[in-house]
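B., you asked whether I could sanity-check this one before it goes into the benchmark set. Here's the sequence:
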Amino acid sequence: MNTISSSSSIKIAAQVALGFLIALLIGSIIFWKERMLFSDAAFISFRIINYGTLQIQVDRYGAFITQLFPYLASKAHLPLASVLLWYSISFNLFYLVVGGLLYRLRQYSLTILLAFYLSLYVSDTYFWTNNEVHQGIAWMLLNFGLLQYWYQRNEHHSKRFLLFALPVFTILTFISIYTHPLVMIVFGFLWVFFVFAQQPFYRSRISWLFITIIILIAVVKFLDSQNNWYDGGLLHNITHTTLRAVLKTFTSSLAQDFIQGGWNNYWLLWLLFFSGSIALWLQKKFLLFTLTLFSCLAYFILICLTFYPSKPFYIESEWMSISFMGTVGFVYYVLPKMSNKLVVLLMITVFTIRLGFICNSANLFKERIQFLETTLDGMRQKKVTKLIVVNDHNQLEDKLLLTWGLPYETLMLSAMKRDTPNRTMSYLLKEKINEANALQTKDALMTAFGPFNHQNINSYYFQLDTTTFYKVQELNN
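And here's what the prediction gave me:
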């Protein structure tokens, strides 16, 4: 497979893939406001600015690489718009750097897989940047790339190889797996794929030392995840499942959405999947054929057991790993047999189509920004600085996708509009309003997680009104 990975057609395909990663980076600049004033990104950047520290959630340590950008930008007192811009850039810059490093290491196939992962099952989720599984996948691919590169250079010098590879592999395995639990599945799949593909390192005796490290880290991560507030509930659905529940996944509403989405949006993934699977069968790579089909089926069942039908921006990010597993056969056993011209035409076509889907999704997030700006304009006209809209029937969910981040989104947008004091709007259930004692509070930002005291507000960036009470209104008023 080393020869296949370094063939001219694979190299050219990797160059086109890098071009696509550059296009995504450009998009992160164009759509920075749509991406950063949306739920998690606004929440994380708000906390980084006000607490002055990185905000790693549920032990997802690999996120430090992107959080460094808003952290350093805020410490340098760059304008708020620049802080958010750099945060938006940080995600796709990281993916581009990883793709570029893999290309420099001559791991061209891994560069292509990274681009396929970030394109084939992506439309709305491009604007929801903070699902750490994407960063975990990038860390994982960098890990595999370095491992294979060092082994190719030191295959006959095991001590030298271990000196370089073992500590770096341990660190990157920890970072990639801890960044998101789903990475464990893709990690295991890719390792077994290379074993069945008879890659020299993965069939060597020394590989067992690395396998032991993977298993230890994965087991510890699995046990840790069961105890945290977010992953624990999701893992419970897997660890407490039944055969009946597994069989029901094939007729579940999420499965139906998956099939419909594959027909309407993600059809390129299935074209590459079927062509890769057919190539594996025709080339008598029966173990790889079986592994690919079984892994995709198992991942389908796992997602249907764990999650529920949701808006595309969320559920896409959970399905994206199936695009990785589903296209490995195509990347390693179809692309190398194609002519250079056909490879260029195919890759440009695939990425252009997927960019079209991403750009089409931008309209929804532009409308969110327009809603936020209209809301702030209305508050200015009425001279309202702090507003709570009562959430009785989730009327805003379809329009805004998520509403829990509105206090952060509106406050930051108001600060960038140079309102003095800044304006903010929350969308809360009546019980949340009563629980937070919102009607009697002047000096806190009201959020879905409770009051955020003004003493924690970074006064360089935000000027919260601490002299008036929140105005509470029904949505239809």
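One thing to flag: The radius of gyration is 24 Å. Otherwise nothing jumped out at me.
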